[in-house]
Amino acid sequence: MSKEYPFIPFSQETYTEEEMIERSRSFFEWADCRRSVRDFSSKPVPKEVLENILMTASTAPSGAHNQPWTFCLISNDELKSRLRELAEQEEKKSYGGRMSDEWLEDLAPLGTDWEKEFIDIAPWIVIVMKRAYEFGEGGKKRNNYYVAESVGIASGFLIMAIQNAGLVTLTHTPSPMNFIAKALERPDNERPFLLLPIGYPTDDAKVPELTRKSKEQVIEYYD
């Protein structure tokens, strides 16, 4: 049976050109401070904060409004240690031969390696799962649409919501990631998309001094 949505009046606050320029500039300057952090504190973060962050991510647009994602929220120490063990097994293989020399050369300045201690240390781990299909009446499969695109957008919302809460994260994508679904005993219609440790940075956390591309490098104008 197809879904039907009632249509309701839309309302959103608007701004003057000057206000739009100022708001867009200040938001960019705030977002430009976001960094991927590998030095996590074990300081607790309230579960409600994580729930609010994840529900913000779930406001993202999606194909046919199917919202093809599940967010697995993990604080259990034993499970985190198991995930770290499995992730490091795959990362050892990647750094030990699966990655090309060029790839390893590009990663070297960032200080990454196969050890993923942040999975144990961060108070929360979020696994973003993409849902390839749903189960309808009688167990019949119903496909989701633009799954990777939809989940990618939701993950972007998620990362900015983490930043807004005053916390830090790191995008981790061990490859292959099938071990995550098995460890979490997820259903067959879900596939791991992203692993995110979430928490506070340590007092002595350090990040590479990076320069992002300029607007001339990332924007093509068609006036």
Explain what this protein looks like in three dimensions.
- With 223 residues, this protein is of the alpha+beta class.
- It has one domain (35-203): NADH Oxidase (3-Layer(aba) Sandwich).
- The protein has 8 helices and 6 strands.
- It has helices at residues 17-31, 47-57, 77-98, 101-107, 118-121, 147-164, 178-184, 215-218; strands at 69-74, 124-131, 133-135, 141-143, 168-169, 190-199.
- The chain has a 4-stranded antiparallel sheet. Strands 3-4 form a two-stranded antiparallel sheet.
- The radius of gyration is 20 Å and the shape is globular.
Set down the secondary structure blueprint.
Layout (H helix, E strand, L loop, with lengths): L16 H15 L15 H11 L11 E6 L2 H22 L2 H7 L10 H4 L2 E8 L1 E3 L5 E3 L3 H18 L3 E2 L8 H7 L5 E10 L15 H4 L5
Antiparallel strand pairs: 1-2, 2-6, 3-4, 5-6
Helix pairs in contact: 2-6, 3-7
